[in-house]
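Please decode residue identities from the backbone states below.
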């Protein structure tokens, strides 16, 4: 019944996720017995197979922290200066719990607080050495009640701020912080680094909110309990210096970001990175064919990123006439990479949990997502309203707008002077926190695995390879039938 993967994917068609469907197999275990733990690359283990894409509207430190706290990982984008990218890595590394406060109010010791609007978001204002987000040594706190009782509002805050602030080290665990707030009946506590810099502020409400999120796998942490963080680089000569700065900042894995990875520039960069930093995993790509994959494997990659033109914001297939349907690309690259034990990342085109089940079963070890994460609280940028809907901006790194900021290296290589867009700028709907919707999505993925009779990624790969798992291509009508149809209206709410 149905086809084996070998037969289905060798008929000359380029299939994407929606083009194929698995036939259900046999269930002999409960959903919760499904183990989604996996490898990002040779030496990096994840308990959850999710990776946040190195895009400037997806992954900066807040996303990297949230993804690692869930058991996945985030790759910090490089559409910035090396110094800025390194600072994002350092910031992610300085946290032990997902970001709680993004709008902490700061003032300088020499400032005066003339009106109460500064207390709009917090019941107090933090006085830091230079009064801004960077390099912010905590000097004191001004309580709203204290400020209210001041007779001279033009006094400098250094004159009346509270200097002995109770703080906790930024290396405290979530449970330590929550326990401390409860035991001391405090509303909030600042977390500070070894050098006395204010890293975060945790309030009782934050504790309640975080406790309310469903629990997932073990967080992705290093030996010292710090979150693991990835970072992308390009293949230009200047990326060698960037690479050094990222490694110095603590990057745990490097992703070489290129839309067509099988190039002399990338192969040289892989060799250079592996020679200079042998203990850091290097992920190459993007590739969609066995030939491309083989070349990068030979160059020494520890992981491969698969996908060309399948991303929601991509126009590469239209503009350049190259690429591959993502289901075929993942299956083909996995069939060669698995022979060398190189994990692959299915990058782009994920818009629902079914796509994740398909990517992982067809041979990927993780999925990399852009649009799926871009509407979350943890994505960079602020929410806007469009036609009454709350949205966040999401743009392709090959869009003219992003390339103007510097990401043209991914799409042009070294020499091209005329920029042609291979991506678009758009917006995605608000999805709330990844801390909530990723656990629900993973529960759906586990149900898919259960239907296939696979209790782990390895089991799914084996079922596929052995031909036990059967597939079929879906006709256009079958795809329509597989979605909601025939209703005048409906509400799509999954959890
Ligand atoms: P999704 O579907 O998750 O895709 O939004 C994210 C992936 O798309 C790739 N990417 C691009 N591809 N033009 C392209 O052809 C672009 O401008 C562009 N920007 C990102 C990238 O692989 C990302 O992870």
């Amino acid at each position: 019944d149905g086809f084996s993967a070998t037969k289905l994917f060798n008929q000359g068609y380029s299939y994407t996720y929606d083009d194929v469907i698995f036939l259900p197999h046999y269930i002999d275990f409960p959903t919760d017995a499904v183990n989604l733990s996996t490898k990002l690359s040779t030496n990096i283990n994840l308990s959850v197979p999710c990776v946040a894409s190195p895009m400037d509207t997806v992954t900066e430190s807040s996303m990297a922290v949230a993804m690692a706290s869930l058991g996945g990982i985030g790759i910090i984008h490089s559409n910035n200066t090396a110094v800025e990218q390194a600072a994002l890595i350092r910031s992610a590394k300085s946290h032990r719990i997902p970001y709680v406060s993004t709008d902490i109010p700061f003032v300088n010791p020499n400032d005066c607080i003339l009106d109460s609007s500064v207390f709009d978001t917090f019941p107090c204002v933090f006085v830091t050495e230079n009064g801004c987000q960077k390099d912010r040594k905590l000097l004191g706190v001004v309580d709203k009640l204290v400020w209210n009782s001041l007779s001279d509002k033009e006094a400098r805050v250094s004159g009346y701020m509270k200097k002995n602030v109770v703080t906790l080290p930024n290396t405290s665990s979530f449970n330590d912080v929550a326990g401390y707030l409860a035991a001391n009946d405090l509303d909030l506590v600042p977390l500070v680094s070894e050098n006395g810099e204010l890293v975060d502020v945790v309030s009782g409400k934050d504790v309640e909110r975080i406790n309310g999120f469903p629990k997932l796998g073990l967080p992705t942490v290093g030996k010292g309990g710090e979150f693991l963080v990835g970072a992308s680089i390009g293949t230009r000569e200047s990326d060698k210096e960037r690479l050094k700065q990222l490694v110095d900042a603590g990057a745990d894995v490097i992703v070489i970001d290129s839309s067509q990875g099988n190039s002399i520039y990338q192969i040289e960069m892989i060799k250079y990175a592996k020679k200079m930093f042998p203990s850091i995993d290097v992920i190459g790509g993007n590739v969609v064919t066995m030939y491309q994959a083989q070349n990068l494997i030979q160059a020494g990659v520890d992981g491969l990123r698969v996908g060309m033109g399948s991303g929601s914001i991509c126009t590469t297939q239209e503009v350049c006439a190259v690429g591959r349907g993502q289901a075929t690309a993942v299956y083909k690259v996995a069939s060669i990479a698995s022979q060398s034990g190189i994990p692959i990342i299915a990058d782009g085109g994920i818009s629902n949990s079914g796509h994740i089940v398909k990517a992982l079963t067809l041979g990927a070890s993780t999925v990399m997502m852009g649009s799926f994460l871009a509407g979350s609280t943890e994505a960079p940028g602020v929410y806007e309203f469009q036609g009454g809907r709350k949205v966040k901006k999401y743009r392709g790194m090959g869009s003219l707008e992003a390339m103007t900021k510097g990401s043209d290296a991914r799409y042009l290589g070294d020499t091209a002077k005329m920029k042609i867009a291979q991506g678009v700028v758009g917006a995605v709907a608000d999805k709330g926190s990844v801390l909530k919707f990723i656990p629900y999505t993973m529960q759906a993925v586990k149900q898919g695995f259960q239907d296939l009779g696979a209790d782990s990624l390895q089991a799914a790969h084996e079922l596929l390879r052995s031909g036990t798992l059967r597939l079929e291509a879906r006709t256009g009508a079958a795809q329509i039938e597989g979605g909601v149809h025939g209703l005048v209206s409906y509400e799509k709410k999954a959890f």
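Observation: Residues 53, 55, 259, 286, 307, 309, 311-314, 316, 347-350, 368-372, 396-399, 422-423 surround xanthosine-5'-monophosphate (CB under 6 Å).
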